Request: fold
Amino acid sequence: MRSKRTGGELAQALAACRPAMRRFAYTLVGPDQADDLVQDAAERAWRKQRLFDPGRGSAQAWLLAIVADQARQRWRRPQPAWQELHPEALVIPASDTATVDLLRAIDALPARQRAAVVLHYFVDLPLADVAELLGCAPGTVKSQLHDARGALEQALGDSYAHD
Reply:
């Protein structure tokens, strides 16, 4: 059964999720269009708030799915928006070589692994929400993250491993 959200509940959800929405938008469309994409997604959430079903996922996952959908509509891409994530656009101080190397290594990952890494480690989504956004099971996300960590370790070498 669908839940009717009040304007106040949606406003609270948007306020709580806006940083994650912005980080996700930044990786989808880059710095020049991220704020516009978040604004478009917030507007769509207001218009479609009656469609939110807490039984199908969290408010954050729903809002991030709207961000991804708005990015797809904006660019009219046939593939899912997460396949076009740009890790180099993440808001991370790139003051050292290690950060630059890490972002390049993430960018070299296959699209699904790259999306899982960005959504889980940079947007801070729980595995269940990442799975919902990627349209797969949480176990698949765990597998993608495991494979991505292995590829990153191989690409970066032992010096980048654990502190």
In short: Residues 7-160 form a domain with the Butyryl-CoA Dehydrogenase, subunit A; domain 3 fold (CATH 1.20.140.160).
